[in-house]
Specification:
12 strands; Calcineurin-like_PHP; 379 residues; six-stranded mixed β-sheet; hydrolase activity, acting on ester bonds; 7 helices; alpha/beta; disordered N terminus; Purple Acid Phosphatase, chain A, domain 2
């Protein structure tokens, strides 16, 4: 019989402002026994961004699994068309608040499977739905009652001996992904920043000079789900310290990724449902920006660093534009999954960088293989 559990999350120390002051080896996420990320022989490095997949939504209905299959079809189509060097899962990989199972990693695994099956390395970060508490559907308390719970298969480990409506915390999701997947370059960031987990840095090395980084990729956890939607001051201080430690002269370009847009996006957003005009580039502008709950200075740091080139977010399913903000480009990805709100055609944002000289350009690849919204973000 299914046991009903109530959950009380008490965070006695929400964010620690202590910083990890170690050397460069403690700054960069370079997984053990993994080859370093590197530009290809033609001096390019291509990244595909998958945003807002929402696997596991309405998992107890026929509709839910069907949407998951549709999402996998989108991922497969884009990957086969673009053949990227790297994939980034830009948050809301799953809809944990819809998962009537104790271990959301079984749906997480579905999301990364199209990338893993093609031998492409990837990294993930968290959105506001990935560890959200289960929301009880009101209809479950009608005459039909609570449906039978589908417990994870035996090869998925989870805490506790019962099958219950528990979900999986950020730390556990990340741990299971990393331990089970040699192609994952994800990381659980400094414990001093928890409950914010997906904070880490990847470097992409030169194709010709094996030790020289060409670009730094920064991943930040923008919160939501089990705690507020915010990039904390502790994360701001962490980024400031780490970026100065590994890139003190700002000579190496930096590209940043997180899920929920900053309040800065509101300042440069085209009027909702209006045509997107230059200097902005995009095709989808069907809603207002839904930003983080607070802004604690991270964008100000980016705009003062000549090395910071662009920030990429998801969250808003009805937006796919890029707009300049001072010397920085602020970009949305494209809603990739069939889960989540909105019926706009699915696709993915593609990023391509070149090494000599460094350049950064982007476009949208749709499920039907069409391409649009090409834009040069740095040259």
């Amino acid at each position: 019989m299914v046991k009903l559990f109530g959950y009380l999350f008490i965070i006695t120390s929400f964010f620690s402002f202590a910083l990890c002051l170690g050397g460069e080896e403690s700054v960069l996420r370079q997984p053990n026994e993994k080859a370093p990320l590197r530009f290809s022989a033609d001096s390019t490095f291509k990244i595909t961004l998958f945003a807002d997949l929402h696997y596991g939504e309405a998992a107890w209905l026929d509709w839910g699994p069907e949407q998951d299959r549709n999402s996998s079809r989108v991922l497969s189509a884009v990957l086969d068309s673009e053949i990227p060097d790297f994939v980034i899962y830009l948050g809301d990989v799953i809809t944990a608040n819809n998962l009537p199972v104790p271990n959301a990693s079984m749906y997480w695994d579905q999301a990364i499977s199209p990338t893993r099956n093609r031998g492409i390395p990837w990294a993930t970060l968290f959105g506001n739905h990935d560890d959200a508490q289960f929301e009880w559907p009101p209809e479950w308390f009608s005459a039909s009652g609570i449906p039978q719970v589908s417990c994870p298969p035996a090869d998925f480990s989870f805490s506790g001996e019962e099958c219950y409506f528990g979900g999986t915390p950020r730390v556990e999701l990340m741990k299971m992904e990393i331990e089970k997947n040699k192609l994952s370059y994800s990381a659980s960031g400094p414990k001093e920043l928890w409950p914010s987990v997906s904070n880490y840095i990847l470097r992409v090395l030169s194709a010709k000079d094996g030790a020289s980084p060409v670009v730094f990729l920064y991943f930040l956890d923008s919160g939501g789900g089990s705690y507020p939607e915010v990039i904390s001051r502790a994360q701001v201080d962490w980024f400031n310290h780490k970026s100065k430690a590994i890139n003190p002269d700002e000579s190496v370009p930096e590209v940043i990724f997180w899920h929920i847009p900053s309040t800065a996006y509101e300042k440069i957003a085209p009027r909702p449902r209006s045509a997107i005009q230059r200097p902005c580039v995009g095709s989808l502008n069907e809603e207002s920006v839904a930003p983080q709950e607070a802004e604690w200075g991270i964008i100000d740091i980016f705009t003062k660093r000549s090395s910071a080139k662009a920030l990429f977010v998801g969250h808003n399913h009805g937006l796919d534009w890029c707009c300049p903000y001072e010397k920085l480009w602020l970009c949305f990805a494209r809603h990739s999954g069939y889960g989540g709100y909105g019926t706009w055609p699915r696709g993915a944002r593609i990023i391509e960088m070149t090494e000599h000289p460094f350049s950064l350009k982007s476009w949208i690849r749709m499920e039907d293989n069409t391409v649009h919204s090409e834009v040069t973000l740095s040259s």
